[in-house]
Amino acid sequence: MLTQRQCLSCFVDDISQAAEVLCGSEPAREEIMRLCLRRLSETLDFSLPPSYHITGLHRLVKEFLGLQVPFCERRKRLNEIGMEIADQVRYEGRELFGLARFRHFAVWALAGNSLDSRSAGTGYAFCPEGMREYLSSYLTRGLAVDQFDLLFEKIQGAKRVLYIHDNVGEVALDAAFIEEIKRSSGPVISALRGGAITSDATYEDGLAIGLHEISDRMILAGPDTLGISFQEMSAELAEELRQASFILAKGQANYYVLSEYRSQIQGEVFLLFSTKCDPVATHFGLRGKHLLATFLS
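The structure assignment produced for this chain is given below.
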């Protein structure tokens, strides 16, 4: 999906809310907005996915504030609570078998995508301690598109699975799901970002939650991009996109990119994400925020 006019208000709102949390003074917040609006006016390109522009703006914020890891304490706490919830999910699934067991872990991994702490998700003021209750409320609403049964059938015996992660906290639930995937598939490769940006999970986050002990291999998807980027992807990610028979991708930002460059990917692509806006939801005949588990044609 390419940038649309409706995306612009989200860009501005996201940076404004991030500045509210990260900056200690109003003059600094105002300067960030001036810098970001100037940058956007100079670089806005409707032939690029929205995530490319959001990445550029958040990099500008990081540079202005001298931050390598924005929201550092929040990110750490989300990972800690994510691991606690993942352990509960494992315990609850211990006596399940077959499709029921697969769906149990898959649905919780999908629900975790609703934890995006940007303004388009839960918001920058989100309290990490409310994670379990928040995820449960999403599960109660159910899925707007649910192809997990078909995924269960088709992933049996998959030769190589590339799992593209999204957010901190959520990545711990991904790890529990990967354990289940590996019961019936070949190796699973986890792709994480090489630098921190908003709430996206990094290679270091993978190490912190023990993902390196669960996935067969962890790779850098690229630098500090929001979702993956076909312009800045690592050689490792490019190679895995060529080799993987199955690609499981989390998050709306990864949907932007994979839907736009689908013709360049040979393997089957399965999306697990929560829609954050109408421009995305309308692609699936919906409006508003919904959980989706669907193959990308």
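Interim note for the steering committee: Residues 72-92 form the longest helix (21 residues). The two ends are 13 Å apart (CA to CA).
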